[in-house]
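pasting Transcriptional regulator, ArsR family for the record, 112 residues
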Amino acid sequence: MVDIFKALSDETRLRILAAIWDDEMCVCEIEKGLKLTQSNASRHLTTLKNAGILSYSKKAQWAYYRISDTFRTEHSVLWAYLQQKLKNIPAYLADGEECKKCREQNLCNNND
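structre below
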């Protein structure tokens, strides 16, 4: 439980969560959408993954992250609270829109 709250105590990690509520995202989409460097994005994604909040899959050379189904199930009250609070913060909504634009650009396939 401590690892979860430590992972959630960083604004960048909360921004990542808000950006990928409903769908998985490639690391390159997260980087561009949230204007993060590769090393910064990787560090935050690893923290969220190690806390059990995110899961990921590999497709070719790309890593795609999503909210862990196990996290959603085992911490349903916390998940509901995060959804309610984060979705009402204008900056996080703007991040989500920017990430959606990046997803629509199909960045991963453009980098082949």
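Residues 90-104 form the longest helix (15 residues).
The beta strands are 25-26, 54-59, 62-67.
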